[in-house]
Amino acid sequence: MDCREFCDQHLAFVDDTLAGIELVRMQQHLGECDSCAKHDAKIRRALLLFRNLPPIEPSPDFSRRLEARLKNCEYDHLFAATPGNLRRGAITATVASVLMLGYIGTTLFPSDAPRDLVMAPVVANIPEPELIPITTSTPAIVASVSAGLSIWPAALLAEQVPVRFAHSSLELANYTR
Amino acid sequence: MADIVRKQKISVEGATVRERLQAMDDSAVVTAFLGGEERAFSELVTRYQTRLLNFVYRTIGDREKAEDLVQEVFIRVYRHLHRFDRSKKFSTWVYTIASNLAKNELRNRSRNPLVLFQTVQKNFQDEDRPLQFEDPTSRPDDMYRKRHLREIVEESVAKLPEHHRNVFVLRELEGKSYEEIAEITDCNLGTVKSRLNRARNSFAEIIAPYVD
Fold first, then answer.
1. Rounded CA gap, B113 and A107, in Å?
2. CB distance from B58 to chain A under 8 Å?
3. Is the N end or the C end of chain B the one with fewer CB atoms within 10 Å?
4. pLDDT digits (tens, 9 = 90+) for B23-58
5. What is the pLDDT of residue B122?
6. CA diameter of chain B
7. Which residues of B156-181 are buried (b: 16+ CB within 10 A; e: fewer)?
C-alpha cells in the first residue's frame, strides 16, 4: 500500500468500516510510514477534541416558549388544510349541497300540490262611513282639529277662534275621509 | 373524596402513558401523536431538543439563534407531521429540517452584515457570562485551559466551509451514518464522504498549532 491509497481509505479506516484485509494493510502501512502515522494521529486527536466538546443544554424557559408557540400553532392548525379537515369540509359541503338541491327540487317541482289554484272570487265592499258623535263641549276644539292642528295648541288658541264657531250649534262630524 | 380519587387516577394514567411513550421508538410515538395523543409530542421534544440544539449551535455558532431555530423545527414538525412519510426515519426528517433552517440562517447572515455584527455582539455577551460547561470544582487554571480549548475548537469548526461543517457536525457530533447524512443534506454518498474527509483534514490542520 502506498501513501495515496492510505489517504484515500483513511476515512473508512477512522470510522472502522473497512473490510478485514484492508484494515490489516492500513495498519501495516501505518507501522512503515511515519508521515502517514503522524497524519493519522493528527486527525484522531482533532476528532477526539471535537467529540468531547461539552454539550449545551436548552435554556430554562425553552419549554415555556415552545409551549406558547405551539398553542398559537394549535389554533392555526384547526383551520389548516390538513387531510382530516379537508375530509370534514368535503363531507359538510356534500351534505349541504344535497340539502340545497333537495330544497330547490321540491320548490320547482312540487309533486302533490295542484298546478292551477282556483281562488274564490274577491268581492270588494265599500264600508259604510262610521259616524262619530262629537263628545266635547267646546265646538272651538272641533274646528281646530278639522283645520289640521293638534288639540293642545288648539286649546291654547281657543279664545282666538271666531265667535261664530263658538256659538255654532252641535252637529255630527265625519272623520273617516 | 371522590374528586381526590378521580384526580389520583388521572395522574396515574398520565404517568403510565408517559412511561409507555418513553418505552416506544420514534415511529410509534409519531403514530401515537397522529392518533390524538398530545403528550406524544412532548416526548418527541424531550428526545430531540438537546441533540438538535447542539447540532444547530455547532453549525451556526450562535446559541440564542440556535434555540430559536430549534423551536422553529418543532413548530414545523407539529404542523407537518401528518405529511411525514412513516416508512422513513423520523430523526432523519427532523435533522433535515434543522439542517435546512441552519443553512438558511447562514445564507441570510452572509447577505446581511448587520446580522453578522449582532451575532458577534451576542457571542461577546455570551463570553461575559459565568462559566457554564466546566466543572466548577476544578482548579482555576485548569478551568481556564479547558475553556480556552473549547473556544479554540469552536473557532476551528467555525472556520470550515458551511457545507463541510454541516457534514462534519452530523457525523462527528451526532454520529449519523453516511447514508443518513446524504439524505439530510440532499447529496449523494460520494459527496458526503468527500466532504467529510476534507472537513476532517481541514479541522485537524486548523487546530494542530493550538494543541501541539
1. 69
2. yes
3. N
4. 888 888 888 888 888 888 888 999 999 999 999 999
5. 45
6. 71
7. bbeebeebbbbbbbbbbbbebebebb
